[in-house]
Structure formats: structure tokens, C-alpha cells
Amino acid sequence: MLEAERKQGQFPLLEMSHLLYGGKDYFDKFLERQSFFDNHPLFKVNHNFYNMSRQDQILLNAERTVEALKKLSLADPNYYTPNVLCPQGIFISTVHFAMVIPAFQVLASDEQISKWMTLLKNLNAFGCYAQTELGHGSDVQNLQTVAVFDKQTSEFVIHTPNIEATKFWPGELGLYCEFALVFAQLQVDGKGYGVHPFWIRIRDKETHKPLSGIEIGDIGPKMGYSVKDNGFMSFDHFRAPLDSLLNRYIKVSRDGKVERQGNPKVGYGSMMYMRNILCDQYTKFGGRALTIAVRYSLYRKQFKDDNKQEIRILDYQCQQQKLFPLLAEFYACVFGSVKIKELVNDNFNRISQQNDFSLLGLTHAVLSGAKANYTYFVANCAEWCRLSCGGHGFAHYSGLPVIFFEMSPNITLEGENTILNLQLARYLLKQLQHVVSKPNAVPEFFKFLSLETAKVDDVTTLDNLITLLGLNCSILTKYAAQKLMSHTDMKESWDTKAGIALAKAASTFIPYFNMLCFLDTINNKAKETKEILTVLARIYGITMLLNNMQGLLLKNQINSQQIQTLQDTRESLYPIIRLNALSLVEAQGLSDNSLQSLIAPKDGDVYQNMYNFASKENSLNKQQVHNGINYIQKMREVNAKL
Ligand SMILES: Cc1cc2nc3c(=O)[nH]c(=O)nc-3n(C[C@H](O)[C@H](O)[C@H](O)COP(=O)(O)OP(=O)(O)OC[C@H]3O[C@@H](n4cnc5c(N)ncnc54)[C@H](O)[C@@H]3O)c2cc1C
């Protein structure tokens, strides 16, 4: 049945696959890894995973991690692709490789790096990233764990002064790691020097028990992340050696002299690493959800047409409205993430090779906004794909709930999204000032802030959509600036008066940025590829405008007729996407095994699949008469007395 749908695709599939993975080499690597998982018995689809206890899920994930390690270099950020293939849980050591090692590379001295890096890479020093506390997460400067320098012994005394200061949430802390990168307030001679990272052994090498003076455990079950041992930890005057302080930017001598050196802004580098992975790799989970939803919408039929033929649900305009704008957004985010990766690498090379910090502010701002935008997109996309699959979308065997569960924490971790949007807003305001005072200093991506008005005939062309998205963000930024300035106390105004306007303005920047990247990707492509990408880009641009056009409305830059045109044009493009929908999702090259969905196989009978699982595989049915039946008798007894 799907073969006929596949044949309708109007563009070369392989070219699209290469675009989605950033080139032929990356796509080939992806396929190679996928076939490793497809052919390994431990990674075969197992929907009984969700019938298992958390204990058993954790053990299975541990076993899987060992097998994955045999094939993959976990130190390579591209190894995150396996998580895209194995969504039942994130392998052990992701925090170690994606957060601890990058932080070490940026914050440790050369001496410390040469002492530890090999041990870190071969997991002989296995650590977690212990920053967040019960009482404070986003507000890192107000963490309360202290590291007090003891001049007598030249040691740091790490202490948790109250319950709120308990480290809470670090992944891999609860059960596994032996070391922790602990962020604590440095105090020397009664003076505070701010929050700094301390690399500390926390469990005994032989027994794996917490060292004396440290209490550790798992924080408990969560929404998703069931195999991740997010932990808690408190210190009771625990003594750590002098060189536990990662000291590239701050040194404490044996007799307590504190010396700062270099540019501590480099510290942003480690955060950028993980945020870049979130943008680059985790965005792919949106495409996974869309593959399931689009395929299922082709298998599924409801109600009959005039010829008494049942209608595929993807043929309903309302179903297209649920899925096609998300499909367009998926492509937009993937193309945006390619540009972001380039920006992050360029910034990193400039800093490390030439001590050139000129791109740091721009990279930090764009990456903050993109992390917020893309992680919202993936969670929203997963949820809408689930809803678009009716009842079956609710079942784990669809492969959809797990995507939502595993992806929605990304909205909160590695910089909570609202806070990140506010950081981008700060940068937008700075560039707004520069537009007037030193226009040459405004980076190309932010030149749109000079826009006050735009005269466009056709609101639906790519160029005009970009102009309108830029103008919208420009107006909203100016509106936020006015709100901010209308109160004398700036700090109070930022926190309690202008926050909504600032966050809103920032949230409209990434759609503009994505459209620029989309246009860049479309240029120089073969005709058919160009045509279908142009349709997707227009749907994306129109959707972003329709959803966020408050700025244009505020300054009468769009009228009701134009809004109607936007809506009509988007609807008129859906039939083209309908023909190409299957090819557009299948360009990702996801195998059945990696999709882990009974409702969306490449080919086959979805109803037979679901029936087989329920009747033959569901482990709850192994016992013909379940123990729980005893309670029915007890219920009868209770009711008999009523
Ligand atoms: C699955 C998962 C894994 C994690 N792994 C780790 C880890 O390995 N290591 C680690 O150290 N931590 C980890 N964390 C913790 C995570 O980093 C924090 O939860 C995150 O930084 C958000 O901080 P918070 O919980 O303090 O939220 P809060 O800052 O308390 O946010 C709560 C709400 O308040 C709002 N808010 C707060 N401040 C402001 C403001 N200034 N302006 C406007 N709104 C504001 C936020 O927008 C949000 O809506 C993990 C968390 C999760 C969920």
C-alpha cells in the first residue's frame, strides 16, 4: 500500500537524505550505525520494556550501553545518533561525555588535563556534572554549597550548609559515577570568590560506597528518563585536595593566595557543547515522531467517500493541518541547526587558536534562542504527532509517548528555555542600541533590527516572508525596550514589568533565523529538490507569521486581507506536501527497528502487528489468571456490605 505513495514523491530521495544529515558521509555513518543496532539482539524492538520495573529497565540499559560502547566512540558528539535509534533510554555516560569532559577541557589547567583526560576518556575517572541544587538551578550564582579553603592543610572543605544546598538532579550521580564536578562557592580567608568547579572523588574505588562525609542516592521516578540515575548528594565538611579546583581561570596557592587569570567567559564553551548537541541531534526526534504519524495516517482509514471507499486520514485537511506545518518546521530546524553548528565551531576555533572572542556574544545568543526554540518544537511535535494518531498514539507500542517523555526535559535542562530566551533578548536590545550608535558593529543576522516598516505586495514569497518575520521581531524588540525603559528601576522592570515582552520578542528571532538558513539551503539545489523545499519553507514561514504576528499587528504592518492570503496560500500548498509526505519523512532513512513503532512499519499490516503484540507478546498476559483477581473478590465483599 505504501509503495504507491512512495512513487508519488517528486524529488530525489538521496539528495534530501544527505541534506538532512549534513552530507553523504554523515548519512552513510548514520546508516552504518543503524544497521549495527538493527542486527544486534539486545537492540531489537522490545515493547515489554514498558512492562518492566525501573530497576530492570536500568539494568537492561546498562547492558545495552556496554554493547554500544563496543561499536561506538562515545567521546565523539556524533555518537548521539545511537540515542536517536535507541529511544528507550539514554546510555550511561552521556553526561560524562557531553558535559563533564567538555567542562574539563575548558575549565581545567593544562596540567590537570594531562593528569585526567585519559582517565576520563577511558572511564577510569567516571563523573557527573553536579551543579543544580534543591533550592537553585537556573540561578547558578546563588548556589549554596561552599568550598572553604583551609590554610592549615591546603585543602578545600566542601560543605552543604542546609537542605536547599543539596545537589539534586545530576545524571549518573544516583548509582554510577565515582567522581563529581561539584560547583560550589569558593571562600578563602572569609572572602567569597563566586562559584567554581571542583573535581572530587565521591565513591570508594573498591567498594563503590559513598566516601565518608558524603551522602548520595537516586532522586526517584520521573516523567521519562527512567533509566537515568539523576541523583542527590550532600557534603558534611568533606575534605578535597588543593588541585580539585579546576584552575585554568582561578588559582589558589598552598598558602591561600587567590589569582585570577585569562578570560573566564570561555566557561560558556562547555554549555555550548551540550546545547549544540541538543539542537543538532535531538531535533531529529521530531522527524522520528513525524515518520510515525505520517505513515500511520496513510495506513489508517476512517469514514467513507462518495464512492464508498474509506478515506485515509492523511487526506483530511484537518489532519494535514496538524502534521504538515510540523514537517516544515522539522526541516527548518534541521537546516538551522547546521548553521548553528558552523557558528559554534567557528567561535570555538577563534577562541582557542587566536584568543579572539569576537563571535562569543553572537554565538551564545543564537544558540540560546535555538536551544529554546528547537526543544519546544520537538516536544510540541511529539505531542501533536501522538494526538494525530488517535487512541493508538497513546500506547507505548506506537513509539510516540517515549519521544515526548524523553524529549520534554530538554526544555528545562541545560538552561531553562524562558531564561535562555531572556538571554537572547538581552543581546537583541544591545544590537538595537548598536543599530543607532554603531551600525557597522551589528552582525549580519541582526541587521533586521533597523526595520521600521515594510511594503510588500505578495506576503507569501520567501523573500517577503523573511522580511515580515524580521520586521515582526524588530517591532517586538522595540516594544519590549520601551516597556523596559518606562520604569526607572531597570532590574525591577526587567523582572516584573517587561519580562513577557522580552521573552516574546526573543522567541520570534529563531523563526527569522531559520528562514534565512532554509533559503541558504534551497539555493543551488537540483530543480525538484528546490521546488519541494520551497514549498516547505513557505509553509514554515507562513505558519511562524500566523502564530506570532503580534508585532506586525501592533504597527499595522499587516491587514486582514493579507492574513487571509497567508492562510489560503498555506492550505493551497498542502496537496503538494500530501504527495511528498511519505518521501519527506522517509528521507531520514529510519529503519523499522529504530522507529520502534508497531503502527508505522515500512510495509505491513499495522492491525496484525498490534494484535500480535497484545495477544502473544505482552508480558502481562503471561499469567492466564492474574493475582490481582483476588482483589475483585475483596471489592465484591466491600460492596456487599453497602
Ligand atoms: C532530566 C533532567 C536532567 C538534569 N540533569 C542535570 C545534571 O546532570 N546536572 C545538573 O547540575 N543539573 C541537572 N538538571 C537540572 C537542570 O539543569 C535544572 O532543572 C534547570 O537548570 C532549571 O533550573 P530549575 O530547576 O532551578 O528551574 P527554575 O529556575 O526554578 O525554573 C522554574 C520556573 O521559574 C522560571 N524562572 C526562574 N527564573 C526566572 C527569571 N529570572 N525570569 C523569568 N522566569 C524565571 C522558569 O522560567 C521556570 O518556568 C537536570 C534536570 C532535568 C529535568
Outline the fold blueprint:
Elements: H1 2-7, H2 13-21, H3 24-39, H4 54-71, H5 81-85, H6 94-107, H7 110-121, E1 127-130, E2 146-150, E3 155-159, E4 167-168, E5 179-188, E6 191-201, E7 214-218, E8 231-235, E9 238-241, E10 250-252, E11 258-260, H8 268-280, H9 284-299, E12 301-304, E13 310-312, H10 317-354, H11 360-388, H12 401-407, H13 417-437, H14 462-485, H15 490-496, H16 499-507, H17 509-522, H18 527-548, H19 550-554, H20 560-586, H21 592-595, H22 606-617, H23 629-640
Parallel strand pairs: 1-5, 2-5
Antiparallel strand pairs: 2-3, 3-9, 4-8, 5-6, 7-8, 10-11, 12-13
This protein binds flavin-adenine dinucleotide.
Main location: other
Subcellular location: Peroxisome
Domain Acyl-coenzyme A oxidase N-terminal: 15-124
Short structural description:
The protein is of the alpha+beta class and 642 residues long.
Q: Would you give an account of this structure?
A:
The chain is of the alpha+beta class. Helices cover 53% and strands 10% of the residues. It contains 23 helices and 13 strands. The strands form four sheets. Strands 1, 2, 3, 5, 6 and 9 form a six-stranded mixed beta sheet that branches. Strands 4-8-7 form a three-stranded antiparallel beta sheet, with no helix packed on it. Strand 12 and strand 13 form a beta hairpin. It is globular, with a radius of gyration of 27 Å. The model has no long low-confidence stretch (mean pLDDT 94). Flavin-adenine dinucleotide binds next to strand 1 and helix 13.
